Amino acid sequence: KGEKMALPVGITLDRFIKRNQGAFQFASGELSQLLRDIALAGKIINREVNKAGLVDITGALGTSNVQGENQQKLDVIADIRFIRALKNGGEVCAIITEEEDEIIYTGNDDAKYVVAIDPLDGSSNIDVNVSIGTIFSVYSRVTPRGTKATMEDFLQGGRKQVAAGYILYGSSTILVYTTGAGVNAFTYENSLGEFFLSHRNVKSPEDGAIYSVNEGNFDDFYDYTQRYILNCRKRRMSSRYIGSLVGDFHRNLLKGGIYLYPPTPHYPQGKLRLLYECYPMAFIAEQAGAKAIDCESDILDVKPVSFHQRNSIYIGAPKMIEELEQYFKERG
Ligand code: AHM
Ligand code: MG
Q1: 69 or 287, which is more confident?
Q2: Pairing state between β 210-212 and 194-199
Q3: For residue 24, what are the CA distances in angstroms to 66, 139, 250, 272?
Q4: Considering only CA atoms, which of 152, 119, 134, 114 is closest in space to residue 34?
Q5: Helix (H, G, I), strand (E, B) or coil at 61
Q6: Is 29 left (phi over 0), alpha (psi -120 to 50) or beta?
Q7: Pocket of ligand 1, candidates 69, 74, 76, 121: which has the most ligand atoms within 8 Å of its Cβ, to mutate?
Q8: Does residue 122's CB lie within 6 angstroms of at least one atom of ligand 1?
Q9: Torsion angle of C-alpha atoms 40, 43, 45, 47, degrees rounded to 10
Q10: Ligand 1 pocket, 165 CB below 6 A?
């Protein structure tokens, strides 16, 4: 049933969504349309990313985003493109993005959904031709349709997501999403301008041999995290870290691995943003049989209090996360 039904090879994302519409919470077609709008934004951003070296759109714009980080031009472009696609699509009443402080109203107050996005994650990699990605998370609003969306619509908690996904602009562009009925991945075919189903019902390996962490911060980690990493080294696991969550997560999901962003003095709550980085990745992870935790609970159970709140995250193959949990338990 749902997204697990047998499908022919070569199916496009549009057709896949249409065939699975009945499996969605409410089969009104609104979520289907929203996913298509996100895919369209992804295609546009893919085009911008691909031509980034040709025209003068990379490099710092000279402004900084609400979190004081260096905002790259391509981040701004992706932000604008995404918002525009969701506004035109009509299924979203409000958006929050990593790039902006306040709620963005689309003008479609009748629409049912709100979306939290990181339009272009991995900002340090934009200028140097390394993989970057888009991350998105969708909720059904709790406020009545026809009214203005509020904070409450966005602060429902990770378990209330109705869809989540990412688009990785890598050696190829791939869109991976879940609506709570498994995870499917669609690879972009440039010449046809279509995403095709390439990885059906993605499942994380039970265990893995890759660990992804910024080891430059090693001395800042708590001793139990350090002990876990030392054990990874002792077992001669592969250390792989791009510095783009989407790329690191995607590789680990397919090959078996763990991604860690622990708290540091610079980022006492961890660096990644709960609403549009941790929650969506955790939803996908759980749907693929992987796990996502901080040192207290499952990521999806972390209570949201503000739009841009940060959270530490450990995400990956279930056995690796369970082993890490043993180290957490040993902490004083
Ligand atoms: P960004 O939203 O500014 O791009 O930061 C998020 C990124 C993640 O994609 C990545 O995993 C992490 O930050 C890398 O951080 P660091 O450079 O501290 O290792
Ligand atoms: Mg980000």
Answers
A1: 287
A2: unpaired
A3: 35, 13, 24, 29
A4: 114
A5: strand
A6: left
A7: 121
A8: yes
A9: -140
A10: no
Predicted-complex ipTM score = 0.97
Structure confidence at residue 8 as a pLDDT band (50, 70, 90): very low
> Separation of 122 CA from ligand 1 center, angstroms?
5
Give the Cα separation of 278 and 299 in Å (integer): 7
Q: How far is the CA of 235 from the centre of ligand 2 (A)?
A: 31
Structure tokens at 123: 């900002």
Instruction: Label residue 62 exposed, middle or buried (CB < 10 Å: 0-12, 13-18, 19+).
Output: exposed
**Closest ligand by atom to 244 CA:** 1
Instruction: Please tell me which residue, 320 or 75, carries the higher pLDDT value.
Output: 320
Token pair recorded at residue 322: 């369970």
What's at 50, amino acid-wise? Answer: N
Q: Cβ(214) to ligand 1 under 6 A?
A: yes
Mean pLDDT of 252-272: 96
Q: CA Rg, the chain, in Å?
A: 19
* Encoded amino acid at 200, one letter: R
Query: Residue 121, annotated ligand binder?
Result: yes
Cβ neighbors of 196 (< 8 A, separation 6 or more) are: 10, 11, 12, 13, 186, 187, 188, 189
Residue with tokens 């609400």: 66
Quote the ligand 2 centre to 244 CA distance (angstroms). Answer: 8
Position 291 pLDDT exceeds 80:
yes
CA of 267 to the centre of ligand 2 (A): 14
- Please state, for a pLDDT cut of 90, what percent of the chain lies above it: 80
pLDDT at position 55 is 62
Distance CA 162, CA 115 (A): 10
pLDDT tens, residue by residue, 104-140? 999 999 999 999 999 999 988 988 889 999 999 999 9
Q: How confident is the model at residue 29 (pLDDT cuts 50, 70, 90)?
A: confident
Query: Per the annotation, does 259 bind a ligand?
Result: yes
Q: Is 134 in the pocket of ligand 1 (CB under 6 A)?
A: no
Tell me the longest C-alpha to C-alpha distance in the chain.
58
Closest atom of ligand 1 to CA, residue 118: 2
